[in-house]
Amino acid sequence: MSTLIEIKNLSKHFAVNRKLFGAKKETVKAVDDISFKIEKGETFGLVGESGCGKSTLGRTIIRMLEPTEGQIIYDGTDITNIKGKELKNIHKRMQIIFQDPYSALDPHMTVKEIMSENISMLGKKTEEEQEEIIVSLLNKVGLTASDMYKYPNEFSGGQRQRIGIARALAVNPEFILCDEPISALDVSIQAQVVNLLSDLQNEFGLTYLFIAHDLNMVRHISDKIGVMYLGKMVEIGDSDEVYFNPKHPYTKALLESVPGIEPENILDLDRDIIDGDIPSPLDIPRGCRFHTRCPYATERCKTEQPELYDYKDNHKVACFNCL
Ligand SMILES: Nc1ncnc2c1ncn2[C@@H]1O[C@H](COP(=O)(O)OP(=O)(O)O)[C@@H](O)[C@H]1O
Ligand SMILES: [Mg+2]
After folding, report:
1. Neighbouring residues of 296: CB distance < 8 A, sequence distance ≥ 6
2. Nearest atom within ligand 1 for CA of residue 48
3. Within 6 Å (CB) of ligand 1, which residues are found?
4. 11 CA distance to ligand 2 centroid (A)?
5. By CB neighbour count within 10 A (0-12 exposed, 13-18 middle, 19+ buried), where does 131 fall?
6. What is the rounded distance in angstroms from the CA atom of residue 269 to the CA atom of residue 267?
7. How far apart (Å, rounded) are the C-alpha atoms in residues 203 and 199?
8. Which class for 231: exposed (0-12), middle (13-18), buried (19 or more C-beta within 10 A)?
9. How far does residue 26's CA lie from ligand 1's centre (Å)?
């Protein structure tokens, strides 16, 4: 297997005003010193509570956001600082599918117009050629030729997400950032969309970064899973390994509500460790960021930040108590 994307010590910080009219700028470390690889053809699942930095990480990787520090290597090329035409060319190879298919599609454009925009990125085509491509893509995602003349509001949420997927496929991408593509959909159709994404991955050899706030959602589709907490990766490994043998107390907490998991894999204490709100990203706790919510926290956890270490092959965890 070869690597498609490698992230080295990637950070993305935002300068914000803490108070509405406050002059003093503060820094939100939305993504803080993260390193990992995504292999060609695999799905990397990224999970964590809302606000932990998943979208920021994904968007920085595809250079929709400027990285603050670190490096992004795409298919052997350092794309961290590329601009202009070079960046445009890389963007043809990467696409994004958004959580909310309602706001992601312009309501004033027909499906044909929406898709033509992307198709024309690959060079000039006659109207006939364009329509041919559109029909073939619509069929691939389970829609029909006549859907091309409709507007987004004439479709259901699931169908709209299928249009978003067809639009992403229109540039023949290698990599798709799927940013919570099923979180806004009815539970009854989530599996259909996941299955569609999975079929398309096999057919086109796509690589996915699949973001979800629920570990159970990404488990089936992911080869590897990364768990984020407050801008940091706290556990990373093969999907089954992270799911069936979670090590970080935060990962265990994320799995707590999942039915069908053996209790010994969850917690050996009968306590709800995910108690308490996620701290403000402006006041990131010293030491291990999770220590304020962790029942196993020791003095060391309050002062020293654990790095990701190899728990075993293809399984890393950032926790002193998992050594
Ligand atoms: N453009 C921005 N300006 C300032 N802060 C931002 C911006 N985008 C995201 N953030 C902050 O960065 C943190 C991570 O956000 P996000 O990546 O959207 O998390 P997630 O996708 O995991 O819900 C949050 O605290 C969010 O408020
Ligand atoms: Mg998000």
Report:
1. 249, 321
2. 22
3. 14, 16, 28, 30, 48, 50-56, 281
4. 16
5. middle
6. 5
7. 6
8. buried
9. 14
Quote the CA–CA distance of 242 and 314 in Å, as a whole number. 10
Contact 137, 118 (CB under 8 A): no
Tell me the C-alpha distance between 141 and 196, whole Å. 7
For ligand 1, atom 3: residue with the closest CA: 14
Q: How many other C-beta atoms lie within 10 A of the C-beta of residue 275?
A: 11
135-152 b/e (C-beta count within 10 Å ≥ 16 → b) = bebbebbbbeeebbeeeb
**Ligand 1 centroid – CA 81 distance (Å):** 22
User: Hey, is 133 helix, strand or coil?
Assistant: helix
Distance 50 CA to ligand 2 centre (A): 6
Whole-structure pTM value: 0.92
Joined together, the tokens standing for residue 268 give: 């050996």
Tokens 């291990």 belong to 288
pLDDT at 1: 73
**Tokens standing for residue 186:** 């009815």
The closest of 237, 217, 201 to 36, measured between CA atoms, is: 237
Report which protein residue has its CA nearest ligand 1's atom 1.
Answer: 14
pLDDT, tens only, 174-213: 999 999 999 989 888 999 999 999 999 999 999 999 999 8
CB atoms within 10 A of CB 240: 12
Answer yes or no: are the C-beta atoms of 169 and 161 closer than 8 Å: no
Instruction: For CA atoms 171, 172, 174, 175, give the dihedral sign.
Output: positive
CATH class for the region spanning 3-108+172-322? alpha beta
Residue 289 confidence (pLDDT) above 70: yes
